[in-house]
Specification:
302 residues; alpha/beta; Rossmann fold; Alpha-Beta Plaits; 3 domains; 6-stranded mixed beta sheet; 4-stranded antiparallel beta sheet
């Protein structure tokens, strides 16, 4: 089955500014595909090029078998989009927004059914400014789906939401995929990408630096473990000489020992030999944040 999206060496320049230097990736039908990167990495510019909202400076693009540079109008009838800076007029009502979007793209779902599916029936007459953050996200996703798209782009959809509303939004995204729609999720939230995405492309400085399933990326790029424990013992520097230990870090009473392989067993034996028996000794497995740091050399917020 051909990919829903195929991107080969995408570039986007604004005179001397290079927003996207070289991005290549594919998105399979029916998956949640994540573009993960810090602000300014080129994620939004990339998906705007894929939707025909910006014209790529170079590279080969195919979205649903069409070129967004020359077939943008036809393409937009088959995709849904929730942009990074989504907003509606304060006084437009929920039903009015859905009715309007449905009229713009005829042939899609009945907006009344979409409104009920996304839990907005009781807010039918509520104005946009009266909706909570989670309710607004429900509305934006409903608007992106009202035309019955084969593919939907969701750009930083949980930015500004509290943790509870963010988890509600995650459930909505899973429902979108389960209904048969391919999802491209743009995010800088590690946990969001790790929990939702079937595959991820890590983007940094306008380039794709790695691509794969979240757990495979962790296995490939973050191979160390971290042994964590608390102690009041003044000296734990002896752990630096323990087999499989790469680095020892201390923050007050908290000690972190980074290593690989059987590092936990060796650290435990060494602690006991020095009469240190912390009750909270544990191992923390690497996560996607460790992958990002290993690939880019900086934390996400940097």
């Amino acid at each position: 089955m051909p990919p829903v999206i195929s991107v080969q060496h995408l570039q986007k320049r604004y005179k001397d500014l290079v927003a996207v230097a070289d991005a290549s990736f594919e998105v399979a039908r029916g998956e949640i595909f994540g573009l993960l990167g810090s602000n300014g990495a080129g994620k939004t510019t990339s998906v705007e090029c894929l939707q025909g909202l910006r014209k790529a400076s170079g590279g080969e693009l195919s979205v649903l078998g069409m070129d967004p540079r020359t077939q943008a109008r036809e393409l937009r009838r088959r995709i849904g989009s929730q942009l990074q800076e989504s907003r509606l007029p304060d006084h437009i009502r929920v039903w009015e927004a859905l009715d309007l979007f449905s009229a713009i793209t005829p042939g899609g779902h009945d907006w009344r059914e979409v409104m009920e599916q996304w839990g907005l029936g009781d807010k039918r007459k509520a104005s946009y400014h009266a909706l909570s953050g989670g309710q607004r996200q429900r509305l934006f996703i409903a608007l992106a789906l009202v035309n019955g798209p084969e593919l939907v782009f969701l750009d930083e959809m949980t930015t500004g939401l509290d943790p509870a509303a963010r988890r509600v939004a995650w459930d909505l995204v899973r429902r979108v995929r389960d209904m048969g729609t391919t999802v491209v999720l743009v995010t800088h939230f590690m946990e969001e990408a790790e929990r939702l995405c079937d595959r991820i492309a890590v983007m940094d400085a306008g380039r794709i630096v790695a691509e794969g399933a979240p757990q495979k990326l962790v296995t490939d790029y973050a191979k160390y473990l971290t042994v964590v424990f608390s102690t009041d013992a003044p000296d734990v520097e002896f752990l630096a000489g323990v087999p499989h230990v790469d680095k020892v870090m201390r923050h007050g009473s908290r000690v972190e020992v980074r290593g690989d392989g059987a590092v936990l067993a060796h650290v435990a034996c060494s602690l006991v030999a020095h009469d240190i028996t912390p009750p909270d000794l544990r191992v923390e497995l690497p996560a996607l944040e460790d992958v990002f740091l290993a690939l880019t050399g900086h934390a996400m917020e940097e």
